[in-house]
Design a protein that fits this description.
The protein is of the alpha/beta class. It has an eight-stranded parallel β-sheet with strand order 4-3-2-1-8-7-6-5. The radius of gyration is 18 Å and the shape is globular. The protein starts with a helix and ends with a helix.
């Protein structure tokens, strides 16, 4: 294949359209192979969320060293309806430091240069509306992103944006089925009805949501919202294929990469103990 033909093929795969997005690199392929079975260790996946800031590449590298299988990278928004105080404050701080969409994509590219795990930008529809939906797909993939999460974009809207869909305890069976049919790789189970943030215990609604969702799809189910301790992570790993930790990771990250690495390592060890044969 000539260089020109190769370039045309890459653009064709990256160009959004009516068909499902085709992965353009081995990172995305691995999400669909290893990620579908859980984490790279064979136990449930560990997903760590960080907001895009100047320090984020160092923090993301530390999270992966601690055992994160996937890193979510928040593109900050001025009115993050789903976020609790920790992520809201981090987003406000990032915006005050000039972290608009283009700089966040530069941040993602920097992270991609340091780690080889899947990277998932997480943001809101207003960001994509301003930046351009198709432009965001192309530019985020060029930066090294594997997929995306758009918190408030209904499953029916903008199918040209391949993304991980979210379902909640209030979701109907019809809605869960629609999200499963449209999602990009795995389903994100929102374990609580409310905003993100550390909580004392794992939501009692999660078990029922997992049961209802498993009856409708064989896709991997990753659960988040309110998970902050190794004990929480282990409890969620008993139910789901992946554990997503956000607010507490951001709090720990304020103490630097070493603190985040140790925190993530504690989560990883707790999850691995659940998966270890008795």
């Amino acid at each position: 294949m000539s260089h020109a033909q190769s370039g045309d093929a890459e653009r064709a795969r990256a160009e959004p359209g009516s068909a499902r997005w085709e992965p353009t690199n081995e990172i995305a392929e691995r999400t669909r192979k290893e990620g579908a079975r859980g984490g790279t260790t064979g136990s449930p996946a560990l997903v760590v969320y960080l907001v895009c800031e100047p320090e984020t590449p160092d923090l993301a590298e530390a999270a992966v060293e601690g055992g994160a299988d996937i890193v979510e990278l928040g593109i900050p928004f001025s009115d993050p309806l789903a976020e609790g105080p920790t992520i809201r404050l981090a987003s406000e701080r990032a915006l005050a430091r000039g972290m608009r969409t283009a700089r966040c994509l530069e941040c993602i590219a920097d992270v991609r240069g340091r780690v080889d795990v899947p990277l998932v930008p997480m943001t809101y529809a207003a960001i994509l509306e301003a930046y351009g939906y198709e432009r965001f797909v192309v530019d985020s993939r060029a930066a090294g992103a594997t997929s995306a999460i758009v918190v408030d974009l209904p499953v029916e809207d903008h199918p040209e944006v391949p993304r991980i869909q979210l379902v909640a305890p209030t979701s109907t069976e019809e809605r869960i089925a629609a999200c499963a049919a449209a999602t990009d790789g795995w389903l994100y189970l929102v374990s609580v009805t409310g905003t993100t943030g550390a909580r004392e215990t794992v939501s009692p609604a999660l078990a029922g949501l997992v049961e209802r969702t498993r009856a409708l799809t064989d896709l991997p189910l990753y659960a988040g919202f309110g998970i902050s301790t190794p004990e929480h992570a282990a409890a969620v790993a008993e139910l789901a294929d992946g554990v997503v930790v956000g607010s507490r990771a951001i709090q720990v990250a304020e103490d630097g990469p070493a603190a985040l690495r140790d925190y993530v390592r504690g989560l990883r060890e707790a999850i691995d103990r659940v998966a270890a044969p008795s």
